[in-house]
Each structure stands twice: as C-alpha cells, then as structure tokens.
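[audit] Reproducing an earlier prediction to check determinism. Same input, same settings, fresh worker. If the tokens differ from the archived copy the diff job will pick it up downstream; this log only records the rerun itself.
[audit] input (365 residues):
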Amino acid sequence: MITISLCMIVRNEEQMLGRCLSTVADAVDEIIVVDTGSTDGTLAVATQYTDHIFHFEWIDDFSAARNESFRHATKDYILWLDADDWLDERELYKLKSLKEQLDPAVDAVIMDYWLDFDPLGQPTAVVKRHRLLKRSRKFQWHDAVHEQLAVQGYVVLTDIAICHGREQTNGERNLRIYEAMLAKGVQLSSRQRMQYAMELTANGRHEQAIANLETVLADPTGYYEMKLECCGRMAHCYHELGLKEQELRALIAAFKYDIPRADYVCRIGYFYQENNNYEKAVYWYQLALKLEKPEGRLYGMNHSAWTWLPHLQLVYCYGKLGQLALAYEHNEIALTYSPNDSNLLHNKKLLEKYVSNNERDETLK
C-alpha cells in the first residue's frame, strides 16, 4: 500500500481548516502545513493535526508557496488540498480504497473538484484536477496565481470528488498580481489571460474582461475547452452590461468549439426566458434534454443541465404559456431528482388542482 503526504498552504483559515483536516486525516500518513502569514488562530488549529508546520514568506506567488509545501513531503505520494476543501464520507472511503489498490507505477491521479452546488445539493461546477502525485517525479507548480501543475507520465482518472466551499475570496489581490505581471512586461499565456479576465469580471471591469477573452479566442493554438468557457464568460459580461444581442452571439459562438452541450443550451434557453420569449426558451430546454453529457472534460460543466434544471425551467415556461399539463409533467420529473424540495412540492400542489379539474371536465363532455 502506498503512503500519502497531505500538503497544504494556508493563511487566516481558522474557520475552515479544521473541517478540511478532520475529513481527510484518516486517509493520509503525514500532514504538511505551510503558513504564509496567518494572524488568526490558523496555526492553533493546524497543531491539533500535525507538528509539520512551516512558515513561508508570502511573495505574491501561489506556485512558490505550493512548491515549498511539496518540498517538505516524505511519503510516496502527495495529496494537495486547500483549507476550504473537504471530503464527505463516501469520497473518503473511495480515497482509502485507492490508497490500498493504487499501482505504484502511477505518476498522478486525477480527481473531480466540486466547485459549486445547486439548491438540491448537487454539484453544478465540476472540473478535473491532478490531485495525487508521485513525490519522486518532483512535479512542480507554475503561474503566480491560478497556479497549475505540469504533469506527465502514467496518469489515471478516478471518480473521487473533492468538495470546495469557498468562504472568502480576494479578487483584488489576484487582480493586483496579474497587473503587476503585466506592468513588468510579462506575456500572459492564453490560460493566464482567461484567468485574468475572470478577475476583471469579479471586479466589475467587464469591458476589459471581454477584450482579454477575445484575445484568447483569437489564439489559434488555444485549447477548445478553454475557448468554450470563454464564450460563456463573455456572455456573462455582456449580460451584466445589458448588451443582449452580443450576449446571445457569444452563447451561440460556443457551437464553433464543440457540439451542443446541455449547459450552454440551457443558458440560451434562459436568455429567451429572461426576455419573455417562452416558446423559444422551451425549444432550447427541450433540446438540452436530448443531449448526452460528455465525459472526461477538464474544464467546468454545470451538471444540473443534464438532470433537473431543464425540467424546472420548463415548468416555468410552460406555465407562462398556459400549458399547465406539460408544466405538471416536468415538475413531476424534477421531483424524481429532489423529492423533498419545497418549491417543487408547492408547484405540484398548485398544478394538481388544474390537472384534476381538467380531467374531470374532459370526462363530463
């Protein structure tokens, strides 16, 4: 059986660190915590789980800090997590099973990263990450912010999921790092430029974000999934600016880079729904129900678009169109995904009255 070092970088995470460590401690053989300048009780929490605590001066470079944490690991494999990550019991069990069964020839293991959740508690934003790494391969982190690993060799894909529950963000810090890089004349890669655009968006600078996203789309060497995501982010920027025609154009541009996907198709449906064109909205939501979910994608997908979301939106649209029997039908399907959802149960009660009365009227004719 392999051994695992958990490596983390932290700063002012006293509210989250305990949850993270408590959910993973049983699966690892060593916990490495590198603190970059905490002023709260983070270190006190860390000492409850490990005495391998190190200090690293923050230099506006996440990769430097993560590489420092890796440097202190001593076990066969390195697992990295953020303080606001955690594993539920099912995922912890799968991680322990992987630890017992993993072929030592494996260089890296990819796991799911659940970044956001819908009202039903299901993941809506899921990406893939190289999460478990053979220490002897000396894999390194790159990029000062929104850092990434350079991984090669024998890589396996698993369905183990790490949950992420962000409690604090520092968009101004990330934006400052990017703009300091640009001021020094650093040429951003397409990936860095997309991440820069995300930080611009988070800070309300939508026009600048769009300009950077257009640069990414114009790069002939860019990865198609990254360009697909750019379309969605550009549509969001146009939406925030109230530019409806450009918003729709950006959504449709996604079809240049991949076959229609339910998350983007639902987004087009919502565009028409928001603009009170319910017949067109119905068309796009119905199309979403016919599409298969692609497997193995590295970039984020809204998984609810392949399950309950189109049905819920169809309840609303069919209701607006006066087609209440169809609204009831899709509400019933949505309930199969979340039988105790209060909004769906409320819809059911209202729609059942109509369906029952309508059936009785048809019988009397």
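[audit] rerun output stored. Observation attached for the diff report: Residues 360-365 have pLDDT under 50 and may be disordered.
[audit] end
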